[in-house]
Structure formats: C-alpha cells, structure tokens
Design brief:
By secondary structure, the protein is mainly alpha-helical. The chain is built from ten helices and four strands. Helix content is 51%, strand content 3%. About 5% of the residues have low confidence.
Length: 281
Amino acid sequence: MARNAEKAMTALARFRQAQLEEGKFKERRPYLASECNDLHKAEKWRRQIISEISKKVSQIQNAGLGEFKIRDLNDEINKLLREKGHWQYRIRELGGFDYKHYGPRMLDQEGREVPGNRGYKYFGAARDLPGVRDLFEKEPAPDLRKTRGELMKEVDAEYYGYRDEDDGVLLPLEMQYEKQAVLEAVQKWRTDWNNSGDKHQEEEEESIYRVQNDEPEEDERQPEEMDDEEGGVAFFAHVPVPSQKEVEEALVRRKKMELLQRYASETLQAQSQEARTLLGL
C-alpha cells in the first residue's frame, strides 16, 4: 500500500491528474471511423489526419533518408489517405460536409498515381526509387489518323502516274510489248483471212435499205425478191433511189441552208443563191 501511495505522489501522476481535472487530456483517435458518432469530433480527427499527412509529405522530400525509410513513409502516407477517406465518408453520414465531391484535393495532387494500381500514390523522393520511375514512363502516343485535308496535300502528279515515264524505263518496255502485240494481231488476221478465203470480202458501202425479216413461206414469196447470203431480203426498186452518201449530202445542204437563213444577212443569202444558180445546184 505504501508503494502505491508513493507512485501516486510522483510528478507524472500529479500532472496527469491535473489534465484530467481540467479536461485537457488528449483523447485517442478511434481505430474505426464508424465508432465515432459525434460530427464535431469526426471533423477534428479528419484535420488531425491531414496534419500528419502534411508532415510526412515534407519528410519524404528528403532523398537522403534511404530507400527503406522512404518506402515506409510512402506506405504510411497512403494509409493515412485511405483513413482520411473513411472519416470523410463518416462525416457525410453524420450530416456534415461532403469533402469527397466538393472539398479541396491539394494533398492528393502532390502524389502521382500509377495507372492500374488501385490508387496507390508515390510522393517526393519515392518517385525516383529504383523500379518506380519505369512505372511512370508513358508509352508513345499512337499515330493519329490523318484528316482528308492532310491526305489531299500529298496528292500530286506522281500520285496519278503522270511521272512514271520520267525514269526512262517504262516507255521502252511499253514499245516492246506494243510491237509484240501488233505482230501477234497481224499474224492472227492473216491466218483467219487465209482460212476464210473469199467468203469475208468487205463491201465498199453497206446498203441501208436491207430489211431483216423472217423467211416467208414458199407460197408468199414475190418473184422480184431474192434471198441474201446474210438472211435478209433484197428489193428491186423500179424508180431511182438515192444512195446513203447522197442522202447524207442532201441533209448537209439542208442544214447549211437553215443556218444561213438564221444567221446570215440578206446580202449574203442573195450571193449564196446566185452561186448555187451558177453552179446548177
């Protein structure tokens, strides 16, 4: 009993008792945010976590701490960030301000997040650790597809093949193949001509009055009709019939007369009529 009395009279015991009496004893932060039901205390624990994060972010900027110390500090900062998120969620449940959507995010922007690593961030000197720098190297951006306007800028005479003959290689080859094709065509024509004989003689002028009809029966044929070799029927005319060439010349003269009457003056028309009279046209 005497020993306990002595412990109670020590300076530390008296100081702790004085703090409890004055209500200044430092309360410990709950391990789980769900255990806190007071909005004012939840705001206090959030501010406390932010203060701890700021201190550790300042410490991790020193690259001389060593690789292991830097890794430990970076893990502690990420742990505090997750804990801050839990307290912000609890504050919103208790009816407080929604920091996740409307609050500042300055502390989150100080770190760099590795893509696909579920929010793990690297702060300060941790970004220069071996193996970490490779995680932040970005892959080269893929080539963007060119627009129609950019593609049209590359279209020139060479695109359409107008400069293919400039190298002096294509023209000799074309002449060689052209001569060969002409010789083959001439040889084929001569062979066909020799085989056909006199059957394929060409007429100087094809008759435009030949009518293609079905062959009539024997009793319906007229005495002046004759069968043609090509299956047509040739008619004997008892009056002079102009040839195709004469018809074309008559049409040309008629067209000239219409043009003269439309565009020529009276003097020019009179001269033209006089010339035709002299020529007997």
